[in-house]
Amino acid sequence: MTDFTTIMPLKKGAEDEAFLQFFPKGFFILDEHRVPFADYQNKVKEHGALFRIQAPHGSKSRAIEQNGLECKYLNSHDSYVVYTADAQKCYVWHGRGAAPAEEDGCNVLVANFFKQPGSTQSFKEGEEPEEFWTALGGKSEYSQVKEGNNAHPDFEPRLFSASNSSGYFFLKEITNFTQEDLVNTDVMMLDAWNTIYLWIGTEANKFEINSSRKAAQKYIDGVTDGRSKEHTHIDEIHAGKEPI
User: Fold this and answer.
1) CA 13 to CA 24: how far, in whole Å?
2) For residue 28, what pLDDT is reported?
3) What is the mean pLDDT of the chain?
């Protein structure tokens, strides 16, 4: 008798679509050690929280608690839910590049995480009331969709590791990536539509750097997603000196 049972390891924040299907009321990634859920809810009611809503697979969404109530954690590609520190207000913010599934995920979070917040206010990026920025400690820079970048509405940034650790140079795509996936011993290639970033780790060697430059140009030459190859450029940045 053949045993077809398999074990699929998943990294936190890199859940696949099949896994998320088991959580129809929403999937939450909390910035907290394991505590009773009621205790966590009480903590959020007292101190507030910011959740980033992502639907990387186009249907099921997940809510990822951010490290703090600060504007710098916003990203135009997603939707967010903000609970104020006094639990009297809930803001739902939709970035310009947010997908419908991410907007729907906000409604799931509001309905199932806190049953009755004091009041809920939803709005699009660019339509924020001043109270929203106040809840985030004031308006400051965050990752925004650049006007006129002509990115396809379904475009998602892609990250690749570039390494010769196996004795030969290779690119490996990292799906559902986070900042923790950046490896200082390698070069990382980030496709951000009109810009291909080459992030050079502090311990990356010259062979990896030179090979990454060639690989980035070859990558641009091979894209077939409708972007202008003439207006797609390569930008080298070093670890610790990243632009916003």
Assistant:
1) 17
2) 75
3) 82
What is the per-residue pLDDT across 36-55, written as a single tens digit (0 to 9) for each?
878 877 888 788 889 888 87
**Regions in the chain scoring below 50 on pLDDT:** 1, 147-148
pTM: 0.61
CA distance 244 to 241: 10
The pair of three-digit structure tokens given for residue 13, joined into one six-digit string = 């924040």
Q: What is the CA radius of gyration of the chain?
A: 20
Q: Are 221 and 229 in contact (CB under 8 A)?
A: yes
| Separation of first and last alpha carbons in the chain | 56
Taking CA atoms, 186 is separated from 19, 161, 173, 228, in Å, by: 30, 7, 13, 28
pLDDT at 214: 95
Q: Which domains does the chain have, with CATH numbers?
A: 22-135 (3.40.20.10), 158-238 (3.40.20.10)
The residues with which 209 forms a beta bridge, in sequence order, are none
Determine how many CB atoms are found less than 10 A away from the CB of residue 41: 17
Q: How far apart are CA 183 and CA 201, in angstroms?
A: 7
Three-state SS at 49: strand
